Amino acid sequence: MDNITLIAIASIVTAGLTIALGSIGPALGEGRAVAIALRSLAQQPDSATTITRTLFVGLAMIESIAIYCFVVSMILIFANPFWGHAITQAAGK
Amino acid sequence: MRLSPDEMIFWQYGVIRLNGTILFTWGLMLMLAVGAKLVTRKLSTDLKRSRWQNLLEIVVTGIEKQIEDVGLSHPEKYIGFLGTLFLFVATASLCTVIPGYEPPTGSLSTTVALALCVLVAVPLFGIEEQGLTGYLRSYVEPTVIMLPFNIISELSRTLALAVRLFGNMMSGTMILAILLTITPFIFPIAMSTLGLLTGMVQSYIFSILAAVYIAAATRDHKSKPEPDATPESTNNDSKRPTHG
User: Fold this and answer.
1) Which of A49, A50, A56 sits opposite B205 (nearest CB)?
2) Which of B241, B244, B238 has the alpha carbon at shortest distance from B73?
3) What is the ipTM of this complex?
4) Which sign does the torsion angle of CA B92, B96, B98, B99 carry?
5) In terms of DSSP H, where are the helices of A1-93?
6) Which of B47, B82, B110, B219 is 20 to 30 Å from B234 by CA-CA measure?
């Protein structure tokens, strides 16, 4: 196994692991946030606009963790800097 | 596979290259500016008005109300900045119904530029509202120990703004491209509808977060006369004069 194969294996496996593990936490957190927001909406329908706005902003904050993981895995698959480095080295030889 | 419209190059002369991001951004700017100019050319104040004026009035009053709800008491001061951010990001994602178009917000350079605008605008509004020393004092607010953490949070939230918008927009186009190779007919349409919704939510969140940051920077830290500053008591106190 040469370097390029190793880099490819490591990148693909890490990309899968990144998105798999990284989506667990935000999913749990978002579910909890939505559940509590729905409960407080049922209890206080008058303050629906405030609750909804805060919920959206909070969800965006939580979701951004998952988005970071997604961006990292996309970079690992489609725009891998190590892969590009290895390819240019192999071409230079 | 293209990761962003940065890699669609239409024209190149030396180091100057005209890629998809710049071209689509110019198109959006042209559309927004010419559209606003055409609509506001003949405004009427009586009940008979054009439908486009009604549309713009709904948009402007809606944005003003949202800014006011965040806690900024003079929304007309901030609507120029926040409304522009919202309208640009929203039209950038709405125009994905046009074939051949890719949202310029799906490129990291655009979103970083927008987030840098927020990074610069927040201290400017803060200094304008409570003076240079008053604004700088907000960095050492509970104690001096919090100074590096406040600065780090200022930078990291800018990064978060940029990467959040980029990730959402890029994932939309990326999922569409992947689905087109797997299930080419019906399912991508459903996903692009979902992409429209995501784009609207993201544009709302981008501008509302910018408004929250500005509200945090312009809030006066000194004027808290109540010894118990619980949210309920301050809300009741601030609402009581309007009823009386």
Assistant:
1) A56
2) B238
3) 0.71
4) positive
5) 3-22, 24-43, 48-78, 81-92
6) B82
With both helix axes pointing from N to C terminus, report the angle between B187-218 and B108-130 in degrees, rounded to the nearest 10. 20
Q: Map out the domains of chain A as residue ranges.
A: 18-82
Tokens of B79: 């609507």
In the CATH scheme, what architecture does the domain A18-82 have?
A: Up-down Bundle (1.20)
Comparing alpha-carbon positions, the chain B residue that sits nearest to A75 is: B3
Phi, psi (degrees; rounded to nearest 5) at B101: -90, 140
How many folded domains does chain B comprise?
A: 1
Distance CA B137, CA B130 (A): 10
Q: What is the pLDDT of residues B121-174, one digit of tens each?
A: 999 999 988 888 888 888 887 788 888 888 888 898 898 899 889 988 888 888
- SS3 of residue B107 by DSSP: coil
Extract the tokens encoding B209.
Answer: 């977060």
**Contact present, A71 and A23 (Cβ < 8 Å):** no
- Please, are residues B139 and B147 in contact by the beta-carbon 8 Å criterion? yes
Q: Is B230 domain-assigned?
A: no
* Whole-angstrom distance, CA of residue B83 vs CA of residue B207: 8
State the sign of the Cα–Cα–Cα–Cα dihedral B75, B78, B81, B86: negative
